[in-house]
Amino acid sequence: MAPGIPGSAGSIGARVLRAPALHSVVAAVLVGALFLLGTGADPVGAYGSVVSGALGPDGIGSTLTTGTGIIGLAVALAIPMRAGLLNLGGDGQLVLGGIAAAATGLYSPLPAPLTVVAALLAGMAAGAAYAALAAVCQNRFGVPLLVSSLLLGYPAMSFASYLARFPLKEEGSSLPQTERLPDGVELPAFGSSTVTVGLLLVAVAAAIFVFADARTATGYEIRMTGLNPRFAAYAGVDRPRLTLRLMALSGAVAGLVGAIGVLSFPYRFIDGSLTAAGHTWTGLTAALLAAAAPIGTALAALFFAALEVGGLAMERTTEVPRELTQVLQAVVIVFLAARLDLTWRRAKKKAAASPAESPADTKEVSVR
Fold first, then answer.
1. What is the dihedral of CA 117, 118, 119, 120, to 10 degrees?
2. H or E segment to which residue 254 belongs
3. What value does the mean pLDDT take over residues 109-120?
């Protein structure tokens, strides 16, 4: 295909080079280099240690392990965001999925392989039901989803903490944690690494999201609602029903990530362990960076996972604080927001400068 033809390699490459997300990442890297120069550090050496620490032989396993949680939560939050809905209750859905998986794994009478499947399903069901509750609060009581999803997360985390500290607490332990899951009730790992089958489960969830977004009528309705909710309503899209479905799917994926965390090392639910790393907010950042596009969201989440793991290697080898990688994440979002706002202002200015409607057109519109 010739360059410039829609769908050709040239046009795709041009769109990638013009993407605001790419510009934001490049700008953040440059700003980070200025910070490093200001402290007397070598930017090339620092960034090199980030890349080698995240993607080298000793770091790729940690990157994939960290990426399992970040990618899963990024996909979970991108599902409703694709329709213009914001789910801020990922932490609550995550911990409910984890505690449900732990309880199922501890008390299920089924054989170990079936117990693992039951624990995963229980985690997904718990996350889906709780996320759907936020949608009900909006549809029935008019509570904005942004508020209901965020506030419902706190009682969920408190409830899971109560279960880990009292009814399900490991006897004789001073830590707020459940008993270790029985032998065999765990996700298989790849060789001697910490990467488990959970990575494949998250990849399958992301692949389903990609397919549904691009190849199904529901995916079209979701994109149309995100672009223009009023037009989608005129076209017959039932927004309350769509909100309920998307929130349930979002919560199911978040609950799946929580279940994966419990069924991986250390094979128990520890109060606060699932939320301590802040993967929910990193996943939200990745979804925002990619504008909730399925493939872009997964790639952005993997990028942030590499930054997180590489930051530790950078701190060890160059004595540059790993908090620099958190600064880079924040700067990416700041530049992205500024770029999108500038694009919106330019479009508005161009529309205001366009020729006014003729009197005949104005009359015709007024009659309609």
1. 50
2. helix 239-263
3. 97
Residue 5 per-residue DSSP state: S
Taking the C-alpha atoms of residue 258 and residue 131, their distance in angstroms, rounded to an integer, is 14
Q: What angle do CA 153, 157, 162 make, to 5 degrees?
A: 150
One-letter amino acid at 363 equals K
> Do residues 300 and 307 lie in contact, with contact meaning Cβ atoms separated by under 8 Å?
no
C-alpha–C-alpha distance, residues 176 and 164, integer Å: 6
- What value does the mean pLDDT take over residues 342-346? 66
Res 8 pLDDT > 80: no
Q: Based on C-alpha coordinates, what's the Rg of the chain?
A: 23
Region at 236 (left for phi over 0; alpha for psi -120 to 50; beta for the rest): left
Give me the half-sphere count of Cα atoms (radius 13 Å) on the Cβ side of residue 365.
Answer: 6
d(C-alpha 294, C-alpha 260), whole Å: 21
Residue at token pair 């700067």: 331
